[in-house]
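STRUCTURE:
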């Protein structure tokens, strides 16, 4: 297996430049208020072994008004034919201490990808608040019929109602004030410490 990573700038690399990609606040040459042109693999990379039928693109949407948790996902069938299976959904209390709701949906999964939906409901959901950020643990799984293997995704999700009413923000029916700022001018011109000593001198003057 080979992995190629590009960090194009204003100069093209195999036809790819800033004009072809989302590059955010990067600039060339380096300009105050913009970011140093850093790129590559920024976080850890994992190679996972999964069953031939697996989940991806799992999205959990809780509804504070009804207590319903809707899940959409994509099932990948890496086999060579249609395969029967089931989507399971389990909702647990904070920290995964106990199951309070669950459901199962049987499906046929074609070769390639299949969009699926599932839902479960709980009574009187514990709302997410600023001083009580309560999160339920939602486990979504897919299993081929007759197989002992199951692929799971675990997502933490909370019930809350955030909206704008009469020109102000409200959280669960109560007015809230949002105060904050964003400042990307770190180090002090860019968000990343340049590894090149020459660039270090240009940025800091030392």
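SEQUENCE:
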């Amino acid at each position: 297996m080979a992995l190629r990573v590009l960090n194009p700038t204003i100069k093209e690399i195999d036809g790819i430049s800033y004009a072809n990609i989302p590059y955010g606040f990067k600039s060339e040459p380096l300009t105050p208020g913009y970011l140093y042109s850093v790129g590559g693999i920024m976080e850890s990379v994992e190679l996972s072994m999964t069953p031939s039928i697996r989940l991806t693109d799992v999205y959990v949407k809780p509804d504070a008004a009804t207590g319903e948790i809707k899940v959409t996902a994509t099932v990948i069938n890496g086999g060579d034919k249609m395969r029967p299976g089931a989507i399971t959904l389990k909702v647990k209390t904070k920290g995964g201490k106990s199951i309070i709701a669950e459901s199962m949906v049987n499906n046929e999964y074609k070769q390639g990808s299949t969009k699926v939906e599932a839902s479960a409901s709980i009574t009187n959901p514990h709302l997410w608040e600023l001083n009580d950020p309560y999160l339920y643990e939602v486990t979504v799984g897919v299993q081929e019929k007759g197989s002992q293997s199951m692929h799971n995704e675990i997502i933490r999700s909370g019930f809350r109602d955030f909206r704008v009413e009469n020109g102000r923000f409200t959280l669960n029916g109560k007015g809230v004030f949002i105060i904050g700022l964003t400042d990307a001018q770190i180090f002090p011109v860019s968000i990343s410490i340049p590894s090149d000593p020459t660039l270090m001198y240009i940025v800091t003057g030392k």
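REMARK: Strands lie at 53-62, 68-77, 83-92, 99-109, 112-121, 136-144, 151-157, 162-165, 168-171, 174-176.
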